[in-house]
Amino acid sequence: MTDRAETATVTAEGAADGTAPGPDPVEEAARAWWIRVASPDGAPPAPDADFFAVGCTSLQAVMVTGGISEDLDEEVPVRLLLQNSRYGAFVTALRAFLATPDDEATDPGRPAW
């Protein structure tokens, strides 16, 4: 597995020479899976696009978080999408989750889902 903070950080290739930073792997994974599951026309999601308002289900939320988990090599709990169904809020929650050290990420009082 990769380090959470490393995964959540925007890659900064070329930043030293003044060029724009490289792609954000967290944003790319979230966008790709959201489009695959929740956007049949292939359009990128707007920040306020709601996963469940477009007719997606909790099973599809499992598909999205499972795909992101595979892409980022980091277990992403489905509860992140269930609790943050708007695209922008989900990406923000995903970044915050990935930036949390592994030993703080699991709250024994909460279910993993």
TrEMBL record:
Biased composition (Low complexity): 7-20
Ranges for domain Carrier: 45-93
Alphabetical list of InterPro entries matching this protein: ACP-like_sf (IPR036736), PP-bd_ACP (IPR009081)
Annotated spans, Disordered: 1-26
Gene3D superfamilies linked: ACP-like
Domain of life of the organism encoding this protein: Bacteria
Pfam families according to UniProt: PP-binding
Protein name: Carrier domain-containing protein
Organism of this sequence: Streptomyces violaceoruber
